[in-house]
Design a protein that fits this description.
By secondary structure, the protein is mainly alpha-helical. The chain contains 30 helices and ten strands. It is elongated and about 185 Å long.
Length: about 950
Amino acid sequence: MSERIVRGIARAKWAVLIAWLAITVASMFALPDLAAIVRQTEQKFIPADSESVVAKQLMERINPETTTKSSAILVYSREGGMTAQDRDWLKAKAAELAQLSGKDGFKSVQSAYETPELAEKFRSKDGTTELLIVGFTRADNDTLTQEAVDILAAKVEGAPSGSKVELTGSAPIGKDFQQSSEEGLKKTELLTVALVLVILLLVFRSPVAPFIPLITIGISLVITRGLVALATEYGMPVSSFTESFLIAVLFGAGTDYCILLIQRFREELTHDGDKAEALVRTMRTVGKTVAFSASTVFVAFFLIGFAQFGLYQSAVGVSIGVAITLIAGLTLTPALLMIFGKAAFWPSKIASGQGHGESKLWGAMAALAARRPVAILVVTVLLLTPITFLYHGKRSFDDLAEINPQLGSVQGFRQVEHAFGAGEVFPLSVALRSDESMRNPAALAALETASANVAKLSGVKEVRSAVRPLGEQLADLTVSNQLIRTSDALEKMKTGVDQVADGLTTAGSSISSGQADIQKLTDGLRKMAARTSEAQSGLKQIYGGMQQASQGAGQLSGGLKQSAEVSGSMSQDLQALLKKYPELKNEPAMQQLLGKQQGLSGGLNELYAGAAKLSASFNQLNPGVNQAADGLGQLAEGQSQAADGTAKLGSGLQELTGGLKDGAAGLGDISKGLTSVKDAQRTIGDSQIPGWNLPQEALDSPELKQALDYYISTDGETAKMEIVLAVNPYSPEALTTVDQIRAALNHSFEGSAIEGTKVYLSGTSAQISELKDISKSDFMRTGAFVLIGIFIVLMILLRSILAPLYVLLSLGFNFLVTMGIVEFIFVQLLGKEGLSWSASFFVFLIIVALGVDYSIFLMARFKEEYRPRGITYAMSKAMSTTGGVIISAAVIMGGTFAALMMSGVNTLLQIGAGIVIGLILYATVFMGLVIPALANLFGEANWWPFRQRTAPQTEAAKSKEEGTGTRYKEQTSE
């Protein structure tokens, strides 16, 4: 800062203070509330074009009237099993909540009472737990949804004694997380202020001086909160981490800057006691150091804005805070120093000529680094490198681990996990997009194949889709079920065939028994023909016998005619049988039966013709009885013909009997064949992978139509599936299952009627899978930006390329060592699944951004002292004078971030621990040994490729430099 500006601030000290107070008050009333904005902000910051976001948008098109944006699960449980009283209470509560649908953010209520057919989905198998699902119209973080959760919580109070009611699900868990973050933030604020106050009291040994940085930082924080909230209207993201980091960084870094200014001002006051001159000298020397230190922090957090991941971007607000704090530190702090003057250091007295000693410890470390730089570097690398191998990058995405396990939402989740499985709380949703309609049998068959393939995965408990609305195959559409029903029909057919066969067998037996009478008739006629000559004497007897014979012939003719008609009717019956069962037409037995029936019919017709002739002969014979004697020869011939006719009749009847037996045998074979088909069908239904068949007419059934309307859009081009995982949705196994599900679905649609269908996964596990990839890639990308930005600042400050390089390398090595220690503590010792997924990024950012401040403190003084005295002296002087400041700054910064460890949020606990470890490690080991060793090792090359002039000085100049003049160049001392 120019001397003119500094003197202007000194003269207008009260005006500066009033101006800052006025700006602060104005920001409190005119600018938005950052806490309220954070409360309504999505905390995972999934990019708008990510798979899970696209999936949600597609599913909302299917049935907007029933789609909910968030939900709460009422978990009702009782040890030992629920009672009738419990169910009555829950039923009444479900009816009461159903009346809220369409009001106050409520949209739907699902329970075993609204949908009895799904009762088993809401009640645990052990009978101890029952669920009631409430859907909301808006997202988890929306104010209306949070108020609806409060209403729901009030509604479910007063449950029967001995029962337990908890609310879990996305909305209650989000609400508890937000409340935990806000409570943790309040706790962090109080602890930070308390820690900073205690440290400042120890540093300044005055009850007045600590209020100068506290006022400066407090005002900066209030204004920053308003400006950051205002910036959100222009697209800047914020999160629950934004306020936490604002408090930690502003109180940490801001206090460091104020300490530099206050300590140097105190030292300058010892020269002549003039406040204005002391302030001018302070700002002339330390002001530059503060500006460059703040610029590295500003650049680091500003470059976070170029991250692609919203949660990382949310830290960009800290850059606004750093800028405001820098401006306040260079204007408000000097004004306060002018107002308080020497009173700021009460009860200590500022005497002329009173200075500050140098740190002997840091001087000793400087001497060691000058004598043994290589040894220091080798030993440091050998000791710290193994620690870096403790860092395996294990990350946890468990949101529940972030908050108190005693909270109701966590307790409810654990109860559901115990009674139903964790997957019931956060099922996986799949959106399917096809160019063809999926409302047809072929497409639905492809969906069934996909559902079956996904259901086979070990990490999947249940798959619900248009063809599996209840999570199971529809039995009526499975080939196995259809085969069983066909088998039952064949059983009935077999029974009918057996009855026909029995009838044919009986008829054959009847005809066979009649053949004996025909044979007797034939024998009689032959005897009559042989004894015709003997009949002459008994003409009247013959006449009587012939009349009987005439009557028998007539009866025979009628019987043969009836038999022929029966045979013809049998032919029609067989043809009708073939028409009904065309598959019998090609059966050899049936063909044989048809042939024999045709032969029988022909024989009967011939017998009928012969019998007709016999009857005619008798009719002619009877009138001519008187001429019988003369025509005995003709009578004998007629009798022979009658005998031959009866013989043919017997032969025809014998063939008919054989045909009937063959027909009965053929039908018996048919019966056996039907039995074999039935058994084969039952075997197919029991042993093969169940098939699936959807008749076109089944699409018109009300049950299937309801499922199609719920799971498939009206145009048929968008469908959804719901997959309940068999593993915890936050676990690594769930992430593996997500990849397996995606692969199984894509494979299932290959070569199907809906080939080319696009698959989009959503839900907790799917979002975690995306977070895993997005956060990792953005870490590398944004980390590179930060390092490049800080390198440029250091290069400008130090006018060197080599020195910034080894400073940044030391910061990177320090980060790996720190993360090795942190992961060992939380994963190996405390048994965590992994570090919070965002912890490593923020630890890296803050360790680099704030750790480089210590390098600037040291290297700026090193550069200043180098000009007259060279490497060894310059580094020794820089370390002995700034070492105490570096330690104080590290303690203050570590203290502010240690307050995050008390926030109750697991991620902030790990970030706080990592930053405390990293900053203390860097301030001691790296700044005390490694950086000095490297500086001594490189010598003149420290300023490569720029040249640093080091001209010899006169004794007077040296004396002046060692005397009064050096006091004006010291930034501070221990």
